Amino acid sequence: MQQLEQYRSCLEACNACADYCDMCSVACLQEDNVKMMADCIRNNMDCAAICRVAAAYMARNSKYAKQMSALCAKICQACADECGKHDHDHCQECAKACQRCADECLKMAA
Amino acid sequence: MQQLEQYRSCLEACNACADYCDMCSVACLQEDNVKMMADCIRNNMDCAAICRVAAAYMARNSKYAKQMSALCAKICQACADECGKHDHDHCQECAKACQRCADECLKMAA
Amino acid sequence: MQQLEQYRSCLEACNACADYCDMCSVACLQEDNVKMMADCIRNNMDCAAICRVAAAYMARNSKYAKQMSALCAKICQACADECGKHDHDHCQECAKACQRCADECLKMAA
Amino acid sequence: MQQLEQYRSCLEACNACADYCDMCSVACLQEDNVKMMADCIRNNMDCAAICRVAAAYMARNSKYAKQMSALCAKICQACADECGKHDHDHCQECAKACQRCADECLKMAA
């Protein structure tokens, strides 16, 4: 579909980022030191939510897709930074997915 | 991530189905005979919404992921059937994504 | 709007329940003993997500509104039961909102 | 709950706006001249989606609640303007809910 192709790379980054953030939020809750992960979990929740909406806006070729992607890029970057501070595999994997999504959304928003 | 791997195939089907449904809803609105597409658009909206939530439940390894997938399978199947009636490329492509997601969700729910 | 009136009471219960669950998830993360709140937070995330989708289905008078409400009732009930175990004000308030929503959704689904 | 009280008025406006937009999207699809309503429906879909996420961010007292509300205000305003052009009761009622939400979100974002 031409309509999806123009956004393919950003769409896939958003979907993957949302999945990793949702996964990471629950994996953090299972760590021994949950207290230390509270900020990470909050970022995960915000990031997963906006990534799923940004994907929907792009798939609908919304007039607001660029503005949504610009905000999504900020929230993904913050989540990448926070997750990146923690050594857990789930955080490191999530940080990568968030960084990729932040980069894709920034390109999209340009 | 092991947490995502167990659901990988269904997760990807849900994300793809949501994207196709969101795309199809707007493509239907641009057809000459929109009236004829009203049911398709309504199915698209319901299907996109539940697929994004089902993906979130699976990624969080929710206790309710199976029950959510069971309902998702029904709604995807209905959307596949409705989209499949229309010759537009976007409907045909969407019907395939919905059918694949219905099948994956049914397996997941088992 | 006649379209919203028929669902008014359940719609409002779903929106309120989602808000309380989102609020409770973050309030739990700020408690000293977060570990003990992990199940509560997971239920909150599931419950908030389905309540917002159930509200959307009702507002769209979806063919699947009843089936969505039936699943929503189960997840709200589980969240009410889990939140009800904890003495924190946010958990007790959230439990009430979840119980009200479970009851409304059950009626809707009938 | 103190956590919800600070956002009460904006939260309620977001939830109501989402409900009206979801309702209006489907009511538009049932009009005789659906073609003329295509832009309204697309605005409704975007507006409902961001209002539900903005409500979640506020309820979670997210660091990004203000930025989300700022974008939400723009999309609500656009939807209020588009709905306001159409004489159907559902569009007029929806326009009012969108205008109220745009105003509340603008205040929140300040």
Automatic annotation (TrEMBL), chains A, B, C, D:
PANTHER family (alphabetical): CYTOPLASMIC PROTEIN (PTHR37310:SF1), CYTOPLASMIC PROTEIN-RELATED (PTHR37310)
Secretion signal, residue range per the UniProt entry: none
Pfam families assigned to the protein according to its UniProt record, in alphabetical order: Csp
Lineage, broadest ranks: Bacteria, Pseudomonadati, Pseudomonadota, Gammaproteobacteria, Alteromonadales
Source organism superkingdom: Bacteria
InterPro entries, per the entry: Csp_YhjQ, YHJQ-like
The species this protein was found in: Hydrocarboniclastica marina
Protein name: Four-helix bundle copper-binding protein
